[in-house]
Amino acid sequence: MAGNKHIGLGTAAIGRPLYINVRQNTDEKPFSLPKFKENGLQVLEDAYSNGIRFFDTSPGYGLAEQLLIDWLKKKGDPDIIVSTKWGYTYVANFDPNAIEHEVKEHSIEKLNNQWKFSKMLLPHLKVYQIHSATLDTGVLENKEVLSRLHEIKKVHNITIGLTTTGNNQTEILEKGLSIEVENEKLFQSFQCTFNILDQSVFKYANKLQNISGPFIIKEALANGRLIPNNRYSNYFLLYDFLMKLADQYKVGTDAVAMRYCIDKFQNAKVLSGADNCVHLRANLLANQFSLTQDELEKLDSFRIESTEYWLERKSLQWN
Ligand SMILES: NC(=O)c1ccc[n+]([C@@H]2O[C@H](COP(=O)([O-])OP(=O)(O)OC[C@H]3O[C@@H](n4cnc5c(N)ncnc54)[C@H](OP(=O)(O)O)[C@@H]3O)[C@@H](O)[C@H]2O)c1
């Protein structure tokens, strides 16, 4: 299948055994690292054979970067594009009972240290992002970090970006869009949470059309909360409408929720976070239809406040 313009694969769930989500069928089998790797490679292959050429990863996603590096070498396709990040270190050692999964550190030492490994993704690596930039770590004021990112951009000809998480995504976006190093805007790619429930970044749609790198949408399914689910009676009216659309377009509600993102931001890369080929193929059905303006407006009306959205997300488990 030829290129897949709208959908990329996020590799968080294929790089570490636990991830934040609303898992409805938990797997009781004992964890096996070789099987986990084998499944990850299968998902990469399946994504590729279904036309996906954009892959998002991070050192915080366990073995995901290494898996991609090995797979890219074998694949040898120059059309594959990768974005990775720096700032989180995976610390759970694939222990499904681990209490701590990742440690955040936005220092120049962490940047230099993680870059040494991540640069093995070159020449596929085209976007290098600060992982969950926040105001409290001071990373967006750290001159040493900003000029090192500028240097990486110049030497390797890649786009510098940042990802946002939490109820102040718009504040980080605003700040990120304004930062200049040597009279050039430093951040030309942004990865944000956008979905039917949290539409806060939509007000930046026009500004995001002018950046030279990709606008990447993560958590299009609200970590699984947009898959009809008895735990969230507050979304039953939304679930009814999603199921009606799913029925009408002969796809799953996951594809409808992803299509919403594609239709709202037509130039974005929307990430599928699937950890298996069945979910991945279901997500990709989002490519096969478009939502009408009326349907989009009705879906718009289900937005909730950012603070409420992120409070609910905090209560999700790693599973
Ligand atoms: N701060 C950051 O930079 C940041 C933060 C979060 C995410 N990300 C990036 O965004 C990517 C996507 O994020 P995400 O996975 O958290 O978001 P998501 O797409 O909102 O949620 C994925 C969840 O939906 C489930 N799902 C997908 N298709 C399904 C189907 N057909 N039926 C039932 N369940 C289905 C998945 O289950 P399965 O796992 O079982 O398929 C998973 O639990 C990540 O891989 C990562 O690359 C970046």
Describe the model:
With 319 residues, the chain is of the alpha/beta class. It has a single domain (7-318), classed as TIM Barrel (Alpha-Beta Barrel), CATH 3.20.20. 39% of the residues lie in helices and 17% in strands. The chain is built from twelve helices and 14 strands. The protein has helices spanning 12-15, 33-49, 64-75, 108-118, 143-156, 169-178, 205-208, 236-249, 253-264, 277-284, 293-300, 306-314, and strands at 7-10, 20-21, 54-56, 81-86, 88-90, 102-104, 125-130, 159-163, 180-181, 184-185, 187-193, 215-218, 269-272, 317-318. The protein has an eight-stranded parallel barrel with strand order 1-3-4-7-8-11-12-13, surrounded by five helices. A two-stranded antiparallel ribbon has the order 2-14. Helix 7 links the parallel strand 11 and strand 12 (215-218). The longest helix has 17 residues, at 33-49. The radius of gyration is 19 Å and the shape is globular. It binds NADP nicotinamide-adenine-dinucleotide phosphate.
